[in-house]
Write a structure and sequence with these properties.
Helix content: 25-40%
Oligomer: single chain
Number of strands: 12
Strand order of the largest sheet: 2-1-12-11-10-9-8-7
Shape: globular
Structural class: alpha+beta
Distance between the termini: 37 Å
Radius of gyration: 22 Å
Number of helices: 10
Length: about 350
């Protein structure tokens, strides 16, 4: 009995020793990559969150205001920019499962006017084309000052390729998706995001509309000339951008996206359009699958900040990296940081 008890005690102590070593490895990897990034003086701060095997590690570096030394923290609110589209994709996946919409639906059945221009030689734009950037829509809405103007702008679109055949990134399409979701659920889009994503995952710090206290925590970012940039002002539904969040809430979002028992997540991760040998579009997810790696990812870039949000389901891992600067190469630089961080952390 004593021998058995000793083995049990040894096993318990052993388990306790393994995890901190692993945790320290993650912390070291985050610190190394963050400090290397900040050697580039165009970057002023960076926040990195890692979820690995259910355990989160969050670290913050640099300063939010040049010369102030005010490091970001777990309460700092960042603009998610286009990572907001993954929330749109999630709700669209739910709508498909709820049979509120169908991927093959002609989008015009949800519009209040005929829009004969929204087809190519008799081939309509379908729901699946909106969520995979294959609709032929322009990148930015022709009119975006308000929702009424948005629909006037739709009438001016000229579809020049067969829908579903060519990828072209569009911020117009996700806004129309958000409108369609609002229509089929008969609820404001902001409310759908709260009801279907935020509340069930206790993401209390993720929101479109900020109160006065929230605004004191909202990052003010810079361009590469150290000029302070404005925050994004939402005029449409928010299908493309407009969500704000913290690193702690983004960890909760990682947990959701890694939940393989969640049928909505599984639907949203479906490969809907193949762009290359190992590259697909899902419900506003970019999906990369090679021999040993499966990745769901999205980049977000706005006037004064950028971020990458990446999920590795086979490794039970997620990475979020956010910075308060934005210029042409920012996304590419952050992507390399994420790749390096993955390599440093991943235990084969």
């Amino acid at each position: 009995m004593k021998y058995v008890s000793f083995l049990l005690l040894f096993a318990l102590l052993g388990c306790k020793n393994v995890h901190p070593i692993h945790q320290q490895n993650i912390e070291n990897a985050i610190t190394k990559n963050a400090l290397q990034l900040l050697e580039d003086k165009r970057f002023h701060s960076v926040s990195i969150a890692v979820l690995k095997d259910g355990k989160s590690t969050i670290k913050h570096f640099g300063e939010l205001t040049i010369g102030k030394g005010n490091k970001p923290n777990d309460s700092t609110l960042y603009e998610l920019a286009s990572v907001t589209k993954t929330f749109t994709g999630y709700i669209a996946a739910k709508a498909v499962l709820d049979q509120k919409i169908h991927l093959e639906d002609d989008i015009r059945i949800y519009l209040n006017e005929p829009y004969p221009n929204l087809e190519y030689k008799g081939e309509p734009i379908r729901i699946k084309h909106l969520i995979t950037h294959t609709s032929g829509f322009p990148n930015f809405p022709i009119k975006s000052e308000n929702k009424e103007a948005f629909f006037e702008g739709l009438k001016l679109i000229n579809i020049e390729t067969k829908p579903g055949e060519m990828y072209f990134y569009s911020n117009t399409a996700p806004e129309l998706t958000a409108y369609i979701l609002e229509k089929v659920y008969q609820k404001p889009y902001e409310e759908l995001v709260t009801e279907f994503v935020l509340k069930p995952n206790t993401m209390t710090q993720t929101k479109f509309t900020l109160n006065e206290n929230d605004r004191t925590r909202l990052v003010k970012g810079y361009n590469d000339k150290n000029e302070l940039m404005p925050n994004f002002q939402r005029t449409l539904w928010g299908g493309i951008s407009g969500l704000h969040s913290t690193t702690t809430d983004l960890v909760k979002y990682m947990k959701l996206q890694l939940d393989q028992s969640n049928v909505i997540v599984n639907e949203s991760h479906q490969k809907l359009y193949k762009e290359g040998s190992d590259f697909w579009e899902g419900y506003h997810w970019y999906i990369i699958e090679s021999d040993h790696k499966l990745i769901y990812r999205h980049h977000g870039g706005i006037y004064g900040m950028q971020n990458w949000f990446v999920i590795y389901p086979k490794q039970d891992m997620g990475i979020s990296i956010l910075t308060n600067t934005s210029f042409n190469e920012t996304g590419e630089i952050l992507e390399k940081v994420v790749d390096n961080l993955y390599d440093d952390i991943h235990i084969k």
